[in-house]
Amino acid sequence: MSEEEYFKEYQMFTIPSLITIILLIFIGLIGSNAKKNPQIQAVAYLKGPPNSNNISPTGNVTFIQNGRSVKVRVFITGLTPGKHGFHVHEKGDLSNGCASMGGHYNPEKVTHGARNDKIRHVGDLGNVKANKDGIVDTTFTDRLISLTDPRSIIGRGVVVHEKVDDLGKGTSPESKKTGNAGGRVACGVIQKFQSLKDIQQFRQEH
Ligand SMILES: *[C@@H]1O[C@H](CO)[C@@H](O)[C@H](O)[C@H]1NC(C)=O
Ligand SMILES: [Cu+2]
Ligand SMILES: [Zn+2]
C-alpha cells in the first residue's frame, strides 16, 4: 500500500465514524434532557354557549403529570356564581357541542362519586366554585386521572355543568350516575403539549 492509498483508506474510516460519534453524543444529550424534564402537560380550552345573561363561559384547564398524580389548574369566567360539576368526559368530540362528549370517563364501570371517594369514575373531579363575579381560579391534585396511562385523559373532554354535582350522595338514582349536575355550560378537548412554548403556539393559532 502506498502512503497515498493508506491515507485515503484512513480517511474513509475516520469521517463516517466521526459523524457516528457526534450523532451518538447528540442523541445522548436529547435523551438526558428528556429525563431531566419529564413533565407532561395538557390543556383544555373551554367554551360554552351564551347563558341567560348572554355571557359565554370561557376558560382553560391545565394538567401537569407529577409522578403518579396530576396537578389541575382551572381558570373559568362567565359562570353563574356557586358550585358547578366538573368532570372529564369520555370523548373529545365537539361535533354536537358539549352534548357529544359522552358520559363521565369511567373505564372501570363503577358508580359516580366525589374526587376523594375510593369508588368513583376516573373523570369525577367534583365541583369547581365560581365567585360572585362568575370566576373560577383554583388548583388541585388528583391521583386517579393520568396523562400517561393506557387510560389517559388526553383526547377526552372537560365538561363544566350548570349545577352542583351532588357527588353520588343524592337520593335519586341519577345521583350515582351523573351527580345530578344538570346541563353542560362549557367544555373543551384535552390536548397534550410538551412545553409551555407549544401551548403559546397553539393559543396563537386558535
Ligand atoms: C389560562 O387563563 C388564564 C387567565 O386568563 C391565563 O392567565 C393563562 O395564561 C391561561 N393559560 C393557558 C395555558 O392558556
Ligand atoms: Cu360531566
Ligand atoms: Zn361521574
TrEMBL record:
Pfam families (alphabetical): Sod_Cu (PF00080)
The protein's name: Superoxide dismutase [Cu-Zn]
Keyword Thylakoid carried by entry: no
Residue ranges constituting the Superoxide dismutase copper/zinc binding domain according to the UniProt record: 58-190
Species whose genome carries this gene: Glossina brevipalpis
Catalytic activity line of the entry: 2 superoxide + 2 H(+) = H2O2 + O2
Needed cofactors: Zn(2+); Cu cation
Top-level EC class: oxidoreductase
Keywords, alphabetical: Antioxidant, Copper, Disulfide bond, Membrane, Metal-binding, Oxidoreductase, Transmembrane, Transmembrane helix, Zinc
TM ranges: 12-31
GO molecular function (one): superoxide dismutase activity
CDD domains according to UniProt: Cu-Zn_Superoxide_Dismutase (cd00305)
E.C. number: 1.15.1.1
